User: Which sequence fits this backbone?
């Protein structure tokens, strides 16, 4: 799919403009199992070739190796990419996290480390990955704002914050984007966080918009390998993963009506939900395969009917299990 076929770029907040669909890089570092070594860079180049130029990573993905991978893309294509990365989580995505840090000294050091691994002078969007509950959020954001003044960061973002935390942060510096899980089966952010973001002029970047692959209709209990990160998520536990196939069935029904794929329907629902709630939405699905990127791009031209939207809205009531093993790890547990 050529770049000229992609709809116009989206304005998030604070003047940040990105491609209408982003790319989440976490899956390229093996959190869902092993990956062929040469594939990740090929997939990244294909994304940019196709017009997906909003690339999202984090320092914790692969303990820095994901940023180093993306540096290989940036080497020749930095001007084509809107680069987002995140700080604050220490540990291993596949085996568990050890700590969250948001103190000013750590913010500064984390940014320097990310800039070095990414081999770039500036990060377009720098997120606080998780809230350090031991540190006032204004202290963390003040340290992030200093990075903007130094020219090392262009825009600030927050991940999995509550509405009140977003308001406190925005009083220190404009927040361009909030990143939280949001999809057909994860809608808790609609109660408080999305309205606050709309009020403050902050865009929304849904991660796991395809339910960590589940909403595509291609994931069953037997598909999760030994090293798969999803074993730690209650929705993928024994029993729950089978019960949640009812949600997939609703998505697949709409997909059949639209002559589309379940992934395209799940993404089209998010675009429609953003319009209904009056907030710019740029999902960042991740994938290892170039053909999945092309499939995801097809969602940008898919229009769902009112009846189809109602059917998908109702599917959320069938979800079994929380989206996080620790409720306080995400905004849902602190609201």
Assistant:
């Amino acid at each position: 799919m050529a770049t000229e076929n992609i709809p116009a770029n989206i304005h998030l907040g604070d003047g940040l403009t990105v491609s209408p669909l982003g790319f989440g890089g976490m899956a390229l570092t093996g959190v869902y199992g092993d990956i062929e070594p040469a594939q990740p860079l090929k997939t990244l180049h294909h994304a940019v070739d196709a017009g997906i130029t909003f690339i999202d990573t984090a320092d914790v993905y692969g303990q820095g190796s994901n940023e180093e991978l993306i540096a290989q893309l940036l080497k020749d294509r930095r001007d084509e990419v809107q680069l987002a990365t995140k700080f604050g989580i220490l540990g291993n995505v596949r085996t568990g996290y050890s700590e969250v840090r948001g103190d000013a000294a750590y913010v500064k050091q984390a940014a320097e480390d990310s800039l070095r691994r990414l081999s770039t002078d500036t990060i377009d969007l720098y997120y606080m990955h998780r809230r350090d509950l031991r540190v006032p959020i204004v202290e963390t954001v003040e340290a992030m704002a200093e990075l903007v003044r130094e020219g090392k960061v262009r825009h600030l973002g927050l991940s999995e914050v509550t509405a009140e935390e977003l308001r406190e942060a925005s009083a220190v510096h404009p927040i361009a984007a909030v990143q939280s899980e949001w999809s057909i089966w994860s809608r808790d952010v609609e109660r408080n966080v999305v309205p606050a973001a709309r009020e403050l002029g902050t865009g929304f970047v849904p991660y796991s918009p395809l339910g960590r692959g589940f909403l595509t209709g291609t994931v069953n209990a037997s598909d999760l390998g030994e090293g798969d990160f999803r074993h730690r998520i209650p929705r993928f536990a024994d029993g729950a993963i089978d019960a949640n196939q009812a949600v997939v069935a609703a998505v697949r029904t709409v997909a059949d009506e639209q002559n589309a794929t379940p992934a395209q329907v799940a993404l089209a629902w998010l675009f429609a939900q953003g319009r209904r709630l009056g907030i710019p939405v740029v999902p960042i699905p991740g994938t290892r395969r170039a053909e999945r990127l092309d499939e995801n791009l097809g969602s940008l031209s898919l229009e769902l009917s009112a009846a189809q939207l109602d059917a998908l809205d109702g599917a959320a009531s069938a979800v079994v299990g929380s989206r996080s093993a620790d409720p306080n790890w995400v905004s849902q547990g602190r609201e």
User: Anything to note?
Assistant: The chain is about 35% helix and 15% strand. The longest helix spans residues 262-277. The chain has a mean pLDDT of 91. The longest strand covers residues 153-159.
